[in-house]
Amino acid sequence: MAIKSKAAKNSRAQQTARGTSSNGRPAKAPAVRVNEHGIPDWRLEHPEFEVFEVSSGPEVHYEIKGKLDTPVPPIRESKYLNKDQCLEIYRWMVMNRRMEQALENLYKQSKVVGGVYFGLGQEACSCASAYALGPDDWFAPMIRNQGAQLVRGFHARDIMMQYMAKSGSPTHGKDGTSHYGDIEKRHMVSPISMLGDLLPVMAGVSLGARLQGKELACLTWIGDGGQSTGVSYEGINFAAVRKLGLVLIIESNLWAYSTPTEYQVNVKDLANRAIGYGMPGVIIDGTDACQVYDATYEAVERAHHGEGPTMIEAKLMRMKGHAIHDAAAYVPKEMHEFWRKRDCIDRFEKYLLGKKWLTPELNKKMIAEIEKELEADRTFAENSPMPEPHTAAEGVYCEDGCHVIKPKYAMPKKAKRGEGKLKETEAAIHFK
What we know:
Blueprint: H1 6-10, H2 15-18, E1 33-34, E2 40-41, E3 49-56, E4 59-66, H3 83-108, H4 123-131, E5 138-140, H5 146-151, H6 156-163, H7 198-211, E6 218-223, H8 230-241, E7 246-252, E8 255-256, E9 259-260, H9 273-277, E10 281-285, H10 289-304, E11 310-315, H11 333-340, H12 344-354, H13 360-383
Parallel strand pairs: 5-6, 6-7, 7-11, 10-11
Antiparallel strand pairs: 1-2, 3-4, 8-9
């Protein structure tokens, strides 16, 4: 079930703005293989290993077997990105990682309230996908998609203050992690801790925009474990039936907390589930920023043309535990080493250096600028005040006149007289 569509064809006309190859012409797409169920697989390598459970008395641990010494594949050439766009995505990825390193230091200094969740190794998946959205499109990040927030207009200081529960944070100190959004300017829906619940919410955002005359892409992410929840199925199915602009990226990061994928699902590729919903699916290398961007961009174009949702399975590895308290001792060391060699930032840096789009001098200058910006943001966040006690009860519940709820784009069209009225034969029996 190919992801290509008339929207993808129409997008070629927009490549001057959205990206071309270095010679100014659209880049030639590499050949695409499909898996045994016909799902396009854009990856340039297909790891052959599996994790299995080993019991030794009362203790249980996991081991890995298979080919773990294969060479790291090259970056797949993008069909849409140009030099400047690649450099910008690379900068966001580096910013994402350096910010999380700063957060880890703040946590170890006991300046963070609660825990910290990291997206180490998943920066390409967060940043390149968010970069593919149009200015009016919506997104709903999960706890590991902090890079997407940076791309869409949040500053590192906002995220740092949020974790430190400062009064200047997006929730004004009322939450210590990631439960905040911005539906006015950045079109961000707040993360929901009950995994999977964001999927029907984002389908609803797409439906609401359609009723107001706009076809928008609504991007969200889910892990391989969260994708197995019942509400995930309901949200995806509704989006597929109504052809809503849900762009779903499954961050297939191999571990649902401490449970390997092999012990969660009985399918090799989670994108196969797209077949059951009757929607396009595609498999990509989640450590390849070009693949992440191209797949998301084509899905966004489909959404803009009212062609329905897309399921993107991004294969990668969660390089840290579930949160900072989790040392991930259950992950076999060989598995960590395999994916460490495929670090998304290292691969993209090597790719950009090889194309001479990035020089060692420019790279050093860029990193120095990022460090300077982060240091200023960290200082600002640390020096920000904690909320005053009396504000604890403010803004918790909606009060009369506190804000006006109105359509964001336009008033939905009114149904014609008689439309939507059930025929007598369709009415529920207990109404008769």
